[in-house]
Amino acid sequence: MADEVILLDYWASPFGMRVRIALAEKGIKHEYKEEDLRNKSPLLLQMNPVHKKIPVLIHNGKSICESLIAVQYIDEVWNEKSPLLPSDPYQRSQARFWADYVDKKIYEVGKNLWTKKGEEQEAAKKEFVEAHKLLEQELGDKTYFGGDKIGFVDVALIPFYTWFKGYETFGNINVEKECPKFIAWAKRCMQVESISKSVPDQDKVYGFMVEIRKRFGLE
After folding, report:
1. Contact 213, 170 (CB under 8 A)
2. What local confidence, expressed as pLDDT, does residue 216 receive?
3. With contact defined as beta carbons under 8 Å apart, do 162 and 205 qualify?
4. Which GO BP terms, alphabetically (predicted)?
C-alpha cells in the first residue's frame, strides 16, 4: 500500500515550513491542504483535537501534531534518505536541545520585535541579538548546524528567516550588522532546494505582518 501523506498547514507559519522542508528533503509526495485559521476545517479539529493548531501531518490516517515532533517522525519513518538527526545519541540530544531553544526563544522574542513598542520592544531587540549570537557560537565553523548538510536544527530555525524583513523593519534592527555569521548561514540555507521551494518570500511574509498589525491596531 502506498503511503498517504497529508499536511494541514498555513503558508506563513514557520512551524509548518519545518514540516514542508523535511518532506521536501526526503522527497515525500504529499497532499498540501491550506487551512483558514479563522475558520478551521473539521479535518483539522478532528486530527488535532487537543491544540487545534497547524501543522498537522497525517500519515495513512494517523495524525502527528507539533512541528518538531512531525519532523522527527518523518526522519524516523523515511530513514533511507537525507538523515536530519545524527545517529550518535549525544549529538542527537544536542540537536534536540537547540531545536527546543529555537522554539522557546526565537519565536517569542521575534514576535515581541514586531508587536511591542517602547521598553518592551527595546528589551526584545537586545534579547533577539543575544539569542542569535549564541546560535552563531553553536554553529561555529560548520556550514550548517547539521555539518556539511542541513540537519534538524537547520530545519527548525531557517523558517524564521522568512520573517526577518518584518523583524528588522518594525523592530528597527539590522541583524546582518549584529550577527553576520548567522545571516551568511541563512543565505546558504536558502540555496538548498528543499528549503527554497518550501518557504515563502520575505516580502510576502512582510505584507502578511503588515496586515496583522493593522488588524490589531499596531499601525
Report:
1. yes
2. 84
3. yes
4. glutathione metabolic process
All three cell numbers of 61, joined, read: 490516517
Question: What is the Cα gyration radius of the chain?
Answer: 17
Beta strands in the chain (DSSP E): 5-9, 31-34, 56-59, 62-65
pTM for this prediction = 0.96
Question: Which CATH superfamily does the domain covering 5-77 fall into?
Answer: Glutaredoxin (3.40.30.10)
Listing DSSP states for 155-187 in one string gives HHHGGGGGGHHHHHHHHT--HHHH-HHHHHHHH
- Tell me the angle at which helices 118-139 and 164-171 cross, rounded to the nearest 10 degrees: 140
What are the sequence ranges of the domains in the chain?
Answer: 5-77, 89-216
Note the pLDDT tens digit of each residue in 193-209. Answer: 999 999 999 999 999 99
Residue 136 burial (10 A CB sphere; 0-12, 13-18, 19+) = middle
Instruction: Give me the phi and psi of 9, to 5 degrees please.
Output: -155, 175
The type of residue at 190 is M
CATH of domain 89-216: 1.20.1050.10
Q: What is the pLDDT of residue 217?
A: 83
